[in-house]
Amino acid sequence: MSAAPASSVVLGAGLMGRLLAWQLAVAGHRVTVHEAGDAQALGSPARIAAAMLAPLAESAITEPSVVRMGHYALQRWPELLSKLSQPVFFQQSGTLVLWHRQDAAEALRFAGLLQNTQAALPELPPMRRVDGKTIRELEPALENRFSQGLYLPGEGQLDNRQLLQSLLNEMQTLGVQLCWNSARAPEDFAPGHEGQPDWLFDCRGLGAQAQWTQLRGVRGEVARIHAPDVQLSRPTRLIHPRYPIYIAPKQDQVFVIGATEIESEDLSPPSVRSTLELLSAAYAVHPGFAEARILEVATQCRPTLPDNLPAIRRLGPRALQINGLYRHGFMISPALLDVVLGLVQRADSSLAVQLSLHIED
What kind of fold does domain 7-52+160-213+306-360 have according to CATH? Predict the structure, then answer.
């Protein structure tokens, strides 16, 4: 007589919770998800993100371990997305980094940080310094606005909201039990005991602060705009000493523009000042943004640990907490997913060692 399938409870239905619940169900687990909010993930930072997959660009503000996870995930995302029944926009056309002449010193500092990363991690595709002619070839709409830049090949992006919806569809199709408006905590369960799940996974982000007191929120502000007059084909970053920005072009002439990062758990609407700076910087990249229509200006807080690095923590032999993805959720979540699946299915932590991902006991 065959053994009953393993049962798992996942707390939190943001990006990490949905990915994990989906893959556990694919592996044959009976999965239940408890989420404090609703199916739209309105309280999740994953809904507000630009979902850029840019490990080399992000290396200017993060550690080599996160860059390794991002590089791993760039190879993993196409495999995961190919298994979804609802398509998700995915692009891997590289990142273009630009600056105005007066910001050349800041650009030199940024390029030096990326060079250090390349020396430490030679497996990354090498960045290229580009002149005005090459910039025009990469992005004809920029015409003669920039004379210098960096091109980071291989980097990518996806559509975060399409992905969240597609993962929801997969969970429903696979029979995952979805409990919305159901705030639960790890102490509500005793994994491995009679009448309890075999496994428990806490993916609640800032919702886990009561159990993981080192967590803090880092506020980010993002504008989504519709700009029919702007033609950009890849994520573009503008270097500026006070308000660097990124512009991520999605489908149907929708652009996600972001920059601000504030050490605060304040979830009030964005300020006039930060919104003006965000949109003014975008206009400095392309004047066509002046006639764009603002679809949304939103804010959310990303769950962050003191070292700004992700971590997995064992709450017991069959209970794991996954948290601290900070601003890199989409960039590194496939790496965290595969580490957790290795721990569950084979008691194998070799991928965590390979990626220098910390597992706390």
Answer: FAD/NAD(P)-binding domain (3.50.50)
